[in-house]
Amino acid sequence: MFILTVDQRDSRHGADRVEPTMRAITRTHTGDLIRRPERTAGDEFQLAVADPTVTVAIALSLSAEGAWSIGIGIGDVDEPLPPSVRAGSGEAFLLARDAVTAAKRSAWRVAIRGGSSTELSDRNAEAVAELLIALRDRRGAPGWEVAGLLESGLSQTHIAERLAISPSAVSQRIKTAAIGTERAGRDTLATLLRILDDSEGTPA
């Protein structure tokens, strides 16, 4: 199980973004969440996810806003999990708390805690997450525009028509924005999270 604990950065100098962000996550990932986001305290919220690919998608979407410290805890939860994530308990919740505390001190705004195997640790997954965020932070507006259109399912030909540019210009934007590299990195991070989560149920 993946528990995400997310805290708004520098909230005293900006608007409260918790409610609209929770609504956006719920709307985008309807059916993918074990427990929907809920405010836990102040400018912090929490949610529960079982799928590592969804976990990566949510974490990267939040990181792109630059407004959140994102902690990901990997581990078991006490069963049965209550209807409200705020009432949940167990190892993953404790690790998510440790992770968001670490994320507040990180230049990359994310930390991962929990899970282990003979091949890797949570720090390996965290390093991949940091590299992905660093890559995405360098992306300019044209690259984000193309990335969003690709994510919506449009082909490069249709994107060229939509933006009134040549197909070769679309290809160049994809290359400059390192969209293919990001996709490979996302898949790698999801795989690492899956291994770490699976290891939690493996006897020592």
Automatic annotation (TrEMBL):
It comes from the Bacteria. This is DNA-binding protein. It comes from Mycetocola reblochoni. The lineage of its organism: Bacteria, Bacillati, Actinomycetota, Actinomycetes, Micrococcales.
